[in-house]
Amino acid sequence: MNKYEHVFISRPDASPAQVETTLEELKALVEEKGGKVNKTEYWGLRTLAYRMNKNRKGHYGYLDMEAGNDVLDALDYKQKYADDVMRYMTVKVEELTEEPSAVLRKGDDRKRRDRDGRPERGDRPDRGDRDRGDRGDRGDRGDRR
Question: What is the strand order of the sheet 36-52 is part of?
């Protein structure tokens, strides 16, 4: 069996619980057809790169699985005729990882950066020896018309 990542975008008016239910249904479908799901992730309501079906946002779901062609056909059929799903894509990968996907790790990196002691946004770093010193009197600047 080959290894795949499957991502789908659901309508923004669907609740997160509905998207979680869709993820569980897809997991059950894959296992019913003989595949194996390693992990499922709900990425939340995110802004789309461009408008789809007059929507600017969508709920993202992710499946990491090992499957054959019959599983892919069943997934394709289920997602194609689902009312809540706007787009979906399945990609073949070389290997599957146990760690969270890059989308979920991105939020962890931001939290970690704030705790590292780096200056908050807006704080100015120490200028060290780049002090401009006393600029002195600027003198008469004259009329600027």
Answer: 36-52, 55-67, 2-10, 85-93
